Amino acid sequence: MAAIEMKHIVKKYGDGFPAVNDVSIDVADGEFLILVGPSGCGKSTLLRMIVGLEDITEGDMVIGGKRVNDLAPRDRNLAMVFQNYALYPHLTVYENIAFPLRLAGASDAEVDQKVREASKTLELDEHLERKPGNLSGGQRQRVAMGRAIVREAEAFLFDEPLSNLDAKLRGQMRTEIARLQKRLGITTVYVTHDQTEAMTLGDRVAVLKRGVLQQLATPRELYENPANLFVAGFIGSPPMNFLPARVDGDSVELPFGRVRLPAEKAARAQGKDLLIAGIRPEHFEDASVVDADKVTDSTFTATVDVVEWLGNEAYAYVPFEAPPEVQRQLQQLERDLDGESLRTQLVVSLDGASRIREGDEATIWVDARKMHLFDPATGENLTVDASRAGTVPGGDAMAKAERVGEQQDNVESSSDQATT
Amino acid sequence: MSTTNKIGVVIGAALILLWCLLPVAWIISLSFKSQEAITNGSPGFLPSEGGGAGWQNYRDVLADDQFLRSILNSIGISLIATLLSVIIATLAAYAIARLEFTGKKFVLTLALVIAMFPVVSLVGPLFDMWRTFGIYDTWPGLIIPYMSFTLPLAIWTLSAFFREIPWEMEQAAQVDGATSWQAFRKVIVPLAAPGVFTAAILTFFFAWNDFVFGISLTSTERARPIPAALSFFVGSDPFNRPASLLAAGAVVSTIPIIVIVLLFQRKIVAGLTSGAVKG
Hints:
heterodimer; A: alpha+beta; Rossmann fold; 2 domains; 5-stranded antiparallel β-sheet; 21 strands; globular; B: mainly alpha; MetI-like fold; 13 helices; 75% helix
């Protein structure tokens, strides 16, 4: 078991495509680190650089105090679970799990003892003699994990291991992976594009965009103190609402009305013209179900378009108009997050007891203490609590990712021209 | 499928089978007739009264040292050529499918060009060269041209198979602690087994059935393969060739190839059913 240190890691492909840009992450011994981001953010490339399947263009990869940049994968002693599991179809489950041991030249008795132990942990005992082709998706997933845990590897690496499973199985396997990791206490790096997996599994989460590290923090820190618009929009489901806002003294003007801000937040946003306010759906509430003493002047009325009632809570949708400059930024953000929203709308999470119905003119309370204000030009969070935001790389990570994105698009379009 | 369709398929299949198997059946029929019966004319499929030779033709053929020697030559030469060709083609195809190197396209094109070259045009020069090198009328003298003509096809077949194998397989093996060679031998080659055996069958066919090289590059029974040997199988009277003996010889010479194909074919089917990997 070992710590993994990534120091200013850069990956540039032969055609000049900058896949990973100056990423520095320290993974402590025994820590569960998540690399998360939308597709094409370089998270898998980074993982493959850790394991040695991808060359490192610049920077140092240090595992257990040893620089491994020039070591072959087999000399790094890491175990990896691939997205498509990469089981050996010509070998039985037993031999699949035993494969790394046999390569290491273990004796038959040792192989047998370790394979049985792993198969017991993963409840694969009755499948040991079968071929991977005859197994279900979840069983294959467990075999792939068996192949990883059977060795005494320095660290586990997972490359989107659950993306091929159906939703129910994914939930079960997620818990299983968390339990296994806690029990074995082994350093783990886990790549996913699913923010739920990132939030539930990780001790810390690194959010990447276009190969640039945006924020490295615990799930709670990411959720409560996102460093910029991108992180704020990526973490949380349903996602954070972004509204055009103007701060004037200690109050902020939103499309629906004026809301009072805590003085400390208001102070940080002085002197800026148009801002983007970020408010999570659960920081709104039907004013009628909020305790009277909490309802201050932070309420507004709006016409609710659609209500989705889920029993314990309800989501209310309120469309609004945004000025063009904010709209552009929000659309760009939506594209970066692999999403596609048709309209600017507010999602409000209401208490299950709320009686608001579609078409109602509702009075909604907003918890302004939890509001974030973002600079629309750079995407930076102006109201971030730096002491509780984990590691935020300096130099305006979101704008940097933007610039890298342009470079990437240039490389892609020029190579497209070359091929056509 | 409607009944008329079914009947159509059955009739069609029967016609094709008849078309393909009639010559084979006729050869078998000939091989059981006596020499006199054939000379006197024996048009029936089954030997006429008193014209049957039973197993005598086969006994005569197998008692013939020249014939046995040429069978041995054919088996030896074809197997060695197949083995070498498949090994070299596997390595070459793997490199072509997996590695980026300059001249990759050139190698592939060259392979195709070689395959397109008419065999006959090479026989003359080879005859001279082999005599100078001293490998005329030897096994290597035939193995080398067989290999060079089967390699291109084998490389093309195998590189297609290698491309089908997910690259992650190999990467997984490397992460598990395998060297590149171990990953190739323990993971890639078993997965490409159907391709390897397909290439092996094609190579073996070519080598076994070749006549032009066999007759031009040999002069004695030291290396003469069976197709060439059959053409020299004249008997005592050069104007009256022993058709029934020839037929028996032809039948015997097809047996090894049937055995080999059946053996290899099982491997091909086993490889194809080994199953997908993704969930």
